[in-house]
Structure formats: structure tokens, C-alpha cells
Design brief:
By secondary structure, the protein is mainly alpha-helical. It has 16 helices and no strands.
Length: 373
């Protein structure tokens, strides 16, 4: 069993999550077609933020499994509610905003953009946009690609912990083969988050905790001064120097962040007073992180399309930087902050036990043929 995450560590991660989402947002603000590259100082921050999200995802999934979702159905219902509470609304939002923006100023959409088609909609709902060599995302919502990685890591994790015996290894292998090598090759980075969660139960001294925490921040800061690969995680797998370098970069960022979490967990009591004092606002902001991450780019595109100023104007930049986060947080009120409603819907759609199909699934998860009890 892993450690039971204390409130201070949880609040710390709730600070990191929106900070990483903001880094992705600011990275996209610098797009040439949106702001004429006015904020290109965030050139690699978006890539590194995704690595941090992968680790956070693995860490949180390990925690919820240990703390409250150790039963297969509960895990599936909770994860589906978490994902689809934002995914379905954001797909609708993207389709509407893209239609408005394309009508007002098609030039804004000359960057990465993939028009909605029935096939693309199906891929998006099933998170198959990154399967093997594909790179498909809905409309202007470029960040959506990462769900084609992360959701399948959930599935692989569930296959390992809920399928019994040797079949668990076959189930995990089947998931990774289905989704393909470029997704599979980043799975160990996600698993670093799982490992970091379990590493937090080690009896680390306060001195060692401070060392890990401070040195990890220093390593991350120093990393910003060295050249970075411009290949993102969704690039096709190859043995080229550029691709190997980009993967090494991803794993370095993931490892440093794992050390940071483990270090903080050992000294979290030192930060408890200030974190508790601001706990409510931290939780509220963090509660909109997923919406900020998935909705910001369609919102920025439509804002740039209707802006009365050219992309190079400081006013356009201000519009993107100020209005986008506010709009995303408003969107969160209609999406992820309503996940209890989605969980109830998922509960209704996935009955606890119904007929032969449920019997077979239950037997499969237990690793023996149906009817062998």
C-alpha cells in the first residue's frame, strides 16, 4: 500500500496543476497566428508542463486507487465521470467557437487545425487520436492530443490492478499494442508518478526532504538554460537523434518532478500553516485546471478572430492573456465542477451486475473463466 497523502501535499499538487495548465496556456498565446509571437518566451514550457501532467496523473491515480477506488466498477465510473465531464462539453464548445471564429476571421485558423468530421468526432470520444502514427485532435483544440495518451494509461493501470494472475500482463500488453509505440514509450514516465506516490511512504528525513525539494527546483531551473528539443511527445517514434533527445528531455523533467514531490511530502508539515490558510482558494482554482487545459485554445482562437486589433497589437495579447483564463474558469462551472452529475449518469449506465456480460467481465477481472466458481 502507498502512503495516505496528507492535506498539505494535496494542496501543493493543487498549486502545481493550475500552474502547469497556465504554462500551456501562455505557450499557446505565443502562437504566430494568435498574437504574432509576442509571448514566445514560453517556447518549451508547454512541452514540459505535459510531462508534469503525466507524472501528476500517475500519482493521483495511484492515490485514488489506494484511498477509495480499489474496486473495478468504482474506478471505472469515477474515471469516466472525471474525463467526460469536461470532454463532452469541450467538444461541443470547440465546434461552436470554431464555427464562429472561422466565419469571422479564417486566417486565425491557419495554424494547427483539423476540421470536425464524423470520424474525428468518434476518435475524439474514444481517445484514439494518437493511435499508432495518427495525430488527430478536434478543431482548434490542439491540447486534446494528450488525452490519447493519458486515458489509455488509466486503462493499462486498471488492467494491471484489476485483472488477476498472469492475464494482467497480457491485458496491459494488449492495451499498449492497441494504442501504439509513441503512446507506449511515454507510459514509464506516467508510471514514475505511480512510483513517486509509493516512494512517499519511505521514512525520508526532513534534511533529505529539503535537499530533494530544493535540488529538484534548481535542476528544473538549470534545465531552462540548456537547448531544448522542439519535438513534442506525439512525434512518431524513431531512432533519430532529435527524437531520442526529446524523449530524454521528457524523462528528465518527469524524474525531476518526481523527486520534487517526494521531497515535498517529507517536509509538507512545514508548509501546512500557509497552505491551510489559503486552502479554499487553492482548491477552487485547481478545480478548474482540466477545463483551462482543454478549453483555452478554442477560446483563444475565437477571441483572436473577433478581436478588433491585429495579432501584433498589445491589446490582442492582453485580450488573450486576461479573458481566456476567466472564460475557462466560467466553463469549468458547467463542466468539471458538475462531475457529480456525470458520476450519477455513469452509475446509471454501468449497472453493478447485469446478466451474462457482467458475469463474464467479473470473472475476467478475477482471472478465471466464467462459471468456474
Amino acid at each position: 500500500m502507498g502512503f495516505m497523502m496528507n492535506r498539505s501535499t494535496s494542496l501543493y499538487l493543487d498549486i502545481v496543476r493550475p500552474a502547469a495548465a497556465l504554462a500551456v496556456l501562455l505557450y499557446h498565446v505565443g502562437d504566430e497566428n494568435l498574437s504574432a509571437g509576442q509571448l514566445n518566451i514560453m517556447s518549451s514550457a508547454g512541452f514540459q508542463a505535459v510531462d508534469i501532467f503525466f507524472v501528476l496523473s500517475g500519482f493521483v491515480i495511484a492515490h485514488v486507487y489506494v484511498a477509495r477506488e480499489s474496486e473495478a466498477r468504482r474506478f471505472i465510473v469515477s474515471r469516466a465521470a472525471r474525463i467526460y465531464s469536461v470532454v463532452i462539453p469541450v467538444l461541443i464548445l470547440t465546434a461552436i467557437l470554431d464555427a464562429i471564429g472561422l466565419r469571422e476571421n479564417p486566417a486565425v485558423y491557419q495554424g494547427p487545425f483539423q476540421p470536425f468530421t464524423p470520424g474525428l468526432a468518434i476518435r475524439s470520444v474514444l481517445f484514439l487520436g494518437e493511435q499508432w502514427n495518427a495525430h488527430r485532435f478536434p478543431g482548434s483544440d490542439g491540447p486534446y492530443w494528450s488525452l490519447g495518451f493519458e486515458v489509455w494509461y488509466y486503462v493499462a493501470f486498471a488492467a494491471f490492478v484489476f485483472v488477476r494472475g498472469w492475464m494482467r500482463w497480457l491485458a496491459v500488453a494488449a492495451v499498449l499494442v492497441l494504442i501504439g509505440p509513441k503512446v507506449a514509450i511515454m507510459f514509464p514516465a506516467w508510471l514514475m508518478g505511480v512510483a513517486a506516490y509509493h516512494a512517499c511512504r519511505w521514512p525520508l528525513s526532513a534534511r533529505a526532504g529539503w535537499a530533494c525539494f530544493i535540488l529538484s527546483i534548481a535542476a528544473f531551473a538549470g534545465f531552462q538554460a540548456v537547448p531544448h528539443s522542439d519535438l513534442q511527445q506525439f512525434a512518431a517514434v524513431s531512432f533519430s537523434a532529435a527524437r531520442i533527445g526529446s524523449m530524454a528531455q521528457d524523462y528528465f523533467v518527469a524524474f525531476v518532478f518526481c523527486v520534487n514531490i517526494v521531497g515535498f511530502s517529507a517536509i509538507s508539515d512545514r508548509f501546512a500553516p500557509v497552505l491551510e490558510r489559503h486552502g479554499a482558494i487553492i482548491r477552487w482554482i485547481a478545480g478548474g485546471t482540466f477545463s483551462v487545459y482543454l478549453a483555452h485554445l478554442p477560446i483563444m482562437h475565437v477571441l483572436a478572430a473577433v478581436s478588433p486589433w491585429p495579432p501584433s497589437s498589445r491589446w490582442t495579447l492582453a485580450l488573450l492573456v486576461v479573458v481566456t483564463p476567466v472564460a475557462c474558469m466560467a466553463f469549468a462551472e458547467l463542466s468539471e465542477r458538475r462531475k457529480a452529475m456525470w458520476r450519477a449518469a455513469m452509475d446509471w449506465l454501468l449497472p453493478a451486475r447485469s446478466g451474462a456480460a457482467a458475469s463474464f467481465a467479473h470473472a475476467l477481472l478475477r482471472g478465471r473463466p466464467a462459471g468456474s466458481d
